[in-house]
Write a structure and sequence with these properties.
Blueprint: H1 2-13, H2 26-33, H3 40-69, H4 92-118, E1 124-134, H5 140-144, H6 146-152, H7 157-168, H8 171-181, H9 183-188, H10 205-215, E2 216-221, E3 226-233, H11 236-294, H12 299-330, H13 336-360, H14 371-405, E4 411-417, H15 430-458
Antiparallel strand pairs: 1-3, 1-4, 2-3
Helix pairs in contact: 1-3, 4-15, 7-11, 8-11, 11-14, 12-13
Length: 459
């Protein structure tokens, strides 16, 4: 079959012979002269078209034969495709999340925003800043009384600042300022419009103290001792008045502390002076009793007099010995002058011995006390009197210093920020409160959702 197709294709591709090239002889002429005969050009065109068709069919037959001879292709693996999923839809749990988000987040957030925008009343803040300063002093009385001031227990500026920090938050200052400015009436006035940021009508004093911690903010720097106070009120003038009253009450407290410290210093100094005076009086009385008992004004002087007698006797003994030596050179032992000189020397020696024994062991007074005991007692009494006198002088100096310091103020308030008059309402900070509300609502809702899904997946 292949050979037949190739032979047909070769026969069609060969050029036509004289028979098909066109008639040039009498037949052609005869044909041309016949009516209705087909012209040679048309016949030629038909033959060419027929040849082309024949060649086309031959090529197709050849291609089919080649394909038949070729190896058949392997069969393709058919993969089954799953049918397309249906469009996702809202399930009950999804609707539950949406509803819970609306109820727990959007609704409270919207209510909060509406309240802050429509109901919350503007608040004005007045600022105040001060510190406690101590008066510096370089006087001579301060130098002499420095030790007494340390013992007096007077407060330091750091301690006064700590006291003021607690005092501004105490019920005492709230009661004083409320009595002067009627805080309850002011802070409860907008309650019908703004019940969240105002004080309820008919509030008790304890409620006012709790509300005071909301409208009065205190910042205390322990390193520098600076106190900053911020007072909020619905009226700017009242905010400034409250700040001014806080400063005045703090100054009054500092003055009271100064007065108390001065009174304590004076009382302690007077008490020390009285004690020292009693001690000095007792020491002097003990010395007087000793002199009365011993009948000696000064045992030391008396002893010195006795020792003077001994010294005189020793001098006389030396002179007698010298005289005896001179007599011995010119006379014999039997000479009456030599015997008299020996008796004189013996008497002087006995007298010296008696004087020495009376000083060391002999009794001086009626009680039979000797000189060593009396001297020891007398020296102890002298030491007690000298100590009592020095203590009395120190106490007297401390009292003079306390009296000198009592006429001046040792601590005072120094304001570095005077109570300001606000012109613009700074509170409530609506955007901050709204943002925090939304954040915490969303956070709480997220926690609830996570807990729900955790419990659901564990089942």
């Amino acid at each position: 079959m292949e050979n037949t197709a190739e032979s047909k294709l070769a026969a069609l591709e060969r050029p036509a012979g004289p028979e098909s090239a066109g008639a040039t002889g009498p037949d052609a002429a005869a044909g041309a002269g016949k009516p209705g005969a087909v012209s040679s050009e048309e016949q030629r065109a038909r033959r060419i078209a027929a040849q082309r068709e024949e060649r086309q069919r031959a090529r197709q037959a050849k291609v089919q034969a080649e394909r038949a001879r070729a190896k058949p292709a392997p069969a393709m693996k058919v993969v089954e495709v799953a049918p397309l999923a249906k469009p996702a839809g809202m399930r009950p749990r999804h609707w539950g999340l949406v509803i819970s988000f609306i109820l727990l987040v959007l609704a409270p957030a919207g209510l909060t925003g509406w309240y802050l925008a429509e109901r919350a009343v503007d608040q004005y803040a007045s600022s105040l800043g001060f510190t406690v300063r101590e008066e510096g002093s370089n006087s001579a009385t301060d130098f002499l009384g420095g030790f007494a001031a340390q013992l007096s227990g007077a407060g330091t500026p750091q301690g006064d600042t700590d006291i003021l920090y607690e005092f501004i938050q105490s019920p005492d200052i709230v009661a004083r300022i409320d009595a002067a400015l009627d805080l309850k009436a002011h802070y409860s006035a907008p309650f019908e419009q703004d019940p969240v940021f105002s004080l309820k009508p008919g509030a008790t004093f304890e409620d006012l103290v709790d509300y005071w911690s909301r409208v009065v903010r205190i910042a205390y720097d322990e390193t520098s001792g600076l106190i900053k106070v911020e007072v909020r009120a619905f009226d700017p003038v009242l905010a400034q008045q409250v700040s001014r009253r806080i400063f005045e009450e703090s100054q009054a407290l500092v003055n009271e502390l100064n007065a108390t410290a001065r009174e304590d210093v004076l009382s302690y100094a007077e008490l020390d002076l009285a004690t020292a005076e009693k001690r000095l009086k007792a020491a002097r009385e003990a010395l007087i009793r000793f002199r009365t008992r011993t009948q000696t004004v000064d045992p030391v002087t008396d002893l010195q007099a006795r020792m003077g007698v001994v010294s005189t006797l020793q001098q006389q003994l030396a002179e007698a010995l010298i005289s005896l030596d001179l007599l011995g050179e010119n006379t014999t032992e039997s000479d009456p002058r030599v015997q008299q000189a020996n008796r004189r020397i013996e008497v002087i020696r006995r007298r010296i011995q008696q004087e020495r024994e009376s000083v060391t062991s002999g009794s001086v007074d009626a009680e039979g006390e000797d000189y060593p005991t009396i001297l020891a007692e007398y020296e102890g009494l002298l030491v007690d009197r000298e100590f009592a006198e020095s203590t009395y002088r120190a106490a007297l100096t401390s009292l003079d210093v306390a009296r000198a310091n009592a006429s001046r103020q040792s601590s005072y308030l120094a304001a570095f920020v005077r109570p300001t008059l606000p012109e613009t309402a700074e509170y409530p900070r609506r955007w901050v409160l709204f943002g925090l509300t939304v954040f915490f609502l969303f956070f709480a809702w997220s926690i609830i959702v996570l807990i729900y899904y955790s419990v659901r997946d564990s089942k």
